[in-house]
Specification:
single chain, disordered C terminus, mainly alpha
C-alpha cells in the first residue's frame, strides 16, 4: 500500500515567499556593502529556473517512477512507514544525497545539470530556487534505497524534506551558529563555502541536512575568507534557456573538437575542466619558454658578473703595483670579489 505522506514542498511555499520578502527588506533597512545581496534580474532568473524545474520534473518523474516501482516490486524487502523508520529513511536519503551531490560536481555530464544551481553570482534565498531542468541524472543514486524496500513515495517525501531544509541555508544574513549545530548540520556558513568559487572552497561541503558526511569523507571546509559566488568562469547571462543548457552546449563543442574516442569520453565523464594529457601539455611550451628565458637571463647575468669581477681584479692589481712602486713599505692586497649570479625566478 502506498504511504500517505504530505507534500512538504507545497506546504512550504508560503514560508519560502515570506522568508524571501523578509530577507529583501532586511537588505533595504540594513545594507551590507560586502554581501552579494539582491539584483533584480538575477533574482528573476532564479525564480524562473525554479518554476521551470517544477514542470520539467513532472516529465522526468514518469520514467523514473516506472523504474523505481519496477525495482520495488522485484525486491522482497519492505520498510514500513513508521515514525522511527521515517527518521532512518531521512538519514539514509541524506547519505545518498551527499554522494549524488558530490557526483554532480566531479563528473562533467552530471555537472552540466547541477551547474545551474551555482550559476548565480549572488547568494540569497532566491538562489535556492535556481534549480536545473535536467534533474533526470539524480535517480540512479537512490536505487539502493528502493532495493532495500523503501517505497518510492517515502523516498519522494525524504527528498522533499531535504530540499525544504536547504532553502534557509542560502543566505548571508545568518552568521555562524553555536558550535554543536555547525559541527552536525549543514548551515548557512557551510553552504556559503559550497557556493564559493575560490580555489580552497571548490568542491566542498556537499551535505544536504547533515555536514557530518563531509567531515567523514574529507570534503569539509570551514568558512574563513569571505566567499566569492558563482562559477570559476561566469556565464554572464540572465537567459533561462542558456542558464539551463550552457554546459551541455560546451560539452558538445568539446566532443566535436576531440581527436580520439578516449578524449571524447573524457570530455563527458571526467571532471569539469579536464584536459587530455596531449592538450594539457600544449600549455607546457609556454611555461618552458618562460623558464628558458629565466635561465638565459640568469646565464647572461652570471657572465656579466664574471666579466665585472675580472675587470675589478685587474684594476686592483694595477693599483697594488703602483702602490708598491711608490711606497715599498706598505703592503696592499687586492680585495677578492665573489659575485653571485641571481637565481632565475620559478616559472609558474
Amino acid at each position: 500500500m502506498e504511504p500517505n505522506l504530505p507534500d512538504v514542498v507545497l506546504w512550504s511555499i508560503p514560508a519560502f515567499v515570506l522568508l524571501t520578502v523578509i530577507e529583501m527588506v532586511s537588505y533595504r533597512l540594513h545594507p551590507d556593502e560586502d554581501a552579494a545581496g539582491y539584483e533584480t534580474k538575477d533574482a528573476a532568473t532564479s525564480v524562473t529556473m525554479g518554476l521551470g524545474s517544477l514542470g520539467f520534473d513532472l516529465l522526468w518523474k514518469i520514467p523514473i517512477l516506472a523504474i523505481y516501482m519496477g525495482v520495488y516490486e522485484l525486491t522482497p524487502l519492505r520498510v514500513p512507514v513508521l515514525w522511527w523508520t521515517v527518521l532512518l529513511m531521512l538519514l539514509a536519503q541524506d547519505f545518498f544525497y551527499y554522494w549524488s551531490h558530490r557526483g554532480h560536481h566531479v563528473i562533467r555530464i552530471l555537472w552540466a545539470c547541477h551547474v545551474v544551481h551555482h550559476s548565480s553570482e549572488k547568494f540569497n534565498l532566491t538562489t535556492a530556487l535556481r534549480q536545473p531542468w535536467t534533474s533526470a541524472t539524480v535517480w540512479p543514486f537512490y536505487l539502493p534505497l528502493i532495493a532495500c524496500g523503501v517505497h518510492p513515495a517515502a523516498l519522494a517525501f525524504c527528498q522533499s524534506a531535504n530540499l525544504v531544509y536547504q532553502f534557509w541555508v542560502h543566505t548571508e544574513r545568518v552568521g555562524k551558529l553555536p558550535r554543536p549545530f555547525e559541527y552536525v548540520l549543514n548551515t548557512p556558513s557551510h553552504h556559503r563555502v559550497h557556493h564559493a568559487s575560490q580555489g580552497g572552497y571548490l568542491d566542498r561541503n556537499y551535505g544536504g541536512i547533515l555536514i557530518i558526511w563531509d567531515r567523514m569523507f574529507g570534503s569539509f571546509a570551514a568558512e574563513a575568507e569571505r566567499p566569492v559566488y558563482g562559477l570559476t568562469k561566469n556565464i554572464s547571462t540572465y537567459n533561462p534557456l542558456r542558464v539551463a543548457t550552457h554546459e551541455y552546449a560546451a560539452i558538445a563543442r568539446d566532443v566535436r573538437a576531440a581527436d580520439t574516442w578516449s578524449e571524447r569520453a573524457g570530455r563527458v565523464f571526467r571532471g569539469p575542466g579536464w584536459q587530455p594529457a596531449a592538450k594539457a601539455g600544449a600549455i607546457t611550451p609556454a611555461t618552458d619558454g618562460t623558464a628558458a628565458a629565466a635561465d638565459t637571463t640568469a646565464t647572461t647575468a652570471a657572465a656579466s658578473a664574471t666579466t665585472a669581477a675580472a675587470d675589478t681584479t685587474a684594476a686592483s692589481a694595477i693599483t697594488s703595483a703602483t702602490t708598491l712602486t711608490s711606497a715599498p713599505s706598505v703592503s696592499s692586497a687586492p680585495d677578492t670579489l665573489s659575485p653571485q649570479a641571481p637565481a632565475p625566478e620559478r616559472a609558474l
